[in-house]
């Protein structure tokens, strides 16, 4: 089957590796940045009440448009040219994105370390422009891929294309909200747009792609793919505007919180979680990615968090947003990345690890967020420090474990790495 592909198609296979490594490496300065904000007395540190929203916006953008997005783009560059039989993506696109993305992250983090508020804002703006530019650079090849699929009458997997086309537009929206942040509510709008609409849609699409296309579990009918994602987009966009209206005093906080829970509950129930459970842990359990399965159920957890009365945000602007990124988004992206990596090794899905260690580490981080929300202070004056340590430990452990997997499989393993991942035909069927 691999022989029918032209060289340029399979030539991009393996491009996910530098993107994955970049993602892992860039988390190190990111965590140093967060530590610096926690330990210093600068006018925009976590110890201050000023500029909390701006810092939350910046750090979230570093994650979603920076090191975590690099993994998403790596999956796109590796998988789409093969599964969609298209020359739309090239090594130039891949390398350009990687370089611009890293420079953008460095500029933003350098601005934070400058300890100068005005300089920090300027460097963040330049950094966000570069992160956005990097994502816009893949907009044309993504659109060309879509056009090629229609011309060749190839089932292009429209759900998979949604993030590829949505991401550049979303990044422009986030950048615009930052530039015009002086307008009431725009910063909050961009914050919610980035997390709920952009990253939530990516997570939902990856969950659908895994269970329906990769595993052929048919949790959702193929004809329902577009409606499922479309309804999520509408609900997420509705929440974004409700946040904007709340900041302008046009709607109540309870309405804004309720609108926040709707896309999460929809994402959970529309992907048939109970049918997934029956297939995963029934009489004849079928192999799957436990990370992606957990990401599906975390949608419900975040939805509940969104509507809990008197749930304390702690020092976070929106603790449910943080939980969504740390759980659903991160697990769905990393789970998809690891599964793709194992597909390139042609490792039987029956012999793959469920990666429960990553789930345990992730649960520790999520638990710290819940303990903040319920104001559990069993550690006295050191409570905030303990929670901070739990989250750092969780994220560090997950990243180290990911690097071990890549190093073991690519350097120490005797398994053969293949340019064409196994069962790619399920994505094109």
In short:
With 429 residues, this protein is mainly α. It has helices spanning 7-11, 16-39, 52-83, 91-113, 117-136, 139-151, 158-179, 186-214, 225-247, 253-270, 273-281, 290-307, 319-344, 356-373, 383-412, 425-428. The longest helix has 32 residues, at 52-83.
Summarize the structure in words.
This protein folds into two domains: 13-182, no CATH class; 189-429, no CATH class. The chain is 73% helix and 0% strand. The protein is built from 16 helices and no strands. It has helices at residues 7-11, 16-39, 52-83, 91-113, 117-136, 139-151, 158-179, 186-214, 225-247, 253-270, 273-281, 290-307, 319-344, 356-373, 383-412, 425-428. The model is unreliable at 1-9 (pLDDT under 50).
Topology:
Layout: H1 7-11, H2 16-39, H3 52-83, H4 91-113, H5 117-136, H6 139-151, H7 158-179, H8 186-214, H9 225-247, H10 253-270, H11 273-281, H12 290-307, H13 319-344, H14 356-373, H15 383-412, H16 425-428
Helix pairs in contact: 2-3, 2-4, 2-15, 3-4, 3-5, 3-7, 3-8, 3-13, 4-5, 5-7, 6-7, 7-8, 8-9, 8-12, 8-13, 9-10, 10-12, 12-13, 13-14, 14-15
Q: How much of the polypeptide forms β-strand, as a percent range?
A: under 5%
Number of helices: 16
Mean of pLDDT: 88
* Class per helix and strand makeup: mainly alpha
Total domains: 2
Order of helices and strands: HHHHHHHHHHHHHHHH
Rg, Cα atoms, Å: 21 Å
* Inertia-based shape: globular
Task: Name the poorly predicted regions.
Answer: 1-9
The helix content, as a percent range, equals over 70%
Major sheet characteristics: none
Provide keyphrases for this structure.
disordered N terminus, 0% strand, 429 residues, 2 domains
